[in-house]
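Archive entry: two folds, one per protein. Generate the first.
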Amino acid sequence: MQEDKLDTSLTENYSDVKLLITKTLHEIQPWFHGPLSRIEAERSIEDSGHKDGKF
C-alpha cells in the first residue's frame, strides 16, 4: 500500500522532481575548472554573452 502511494506521488510530481534534479545535479559533481572559482566561471559565462562553446 505504501509503495502505491509513493508511486502515485512520484508520478504526480514528476515534472517538479525532474526540474529539481536538473537544476541541482551539477552542484554535486566535482569541480573540474581547476583554480577557477565558481564566481569567476559565472562571470566568464556572463561576459561571453552565453554563447555556446565560449566557455
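Generate the second and append.
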Amino acid sequence: MLMAEGVRTGRIDTVRPEHTPEAMGRPPRRDDHGGEVYVYRRHGQPCLVCGASVRTTELQQRNLFWCPRCQPRFRSRAASGALG
C-alpha cells in the first residue's frame, strides 16, 4: 500500500498519514538517519502505533527491529500444517 502511494505521489513515506507526528499529536523524530519510522533504531522505545516496546536482535550480521504486538512471530504455513 505504501509503495503504491509512493508511485502515485512520486515519493516514498515510511509511515502512513494517520501515524505522522502531526496526526498523532507528538513531536517529530529527531535522528541523523532520516525521517519517521515505525520501529527502526527504536529499541526499547514505544511502538508509534500500539505503544508496545520495540525489540531488536541481530540476523545475519544486521540489526532487526520489530514490534511484538504489531508484527507477531511469523509461523509458516508449512509449520502449521496448512500446506498439505
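Annotation attached to the second fold: The chain has a mean pLDDT of 76. The longest strand covers residues 55-59.
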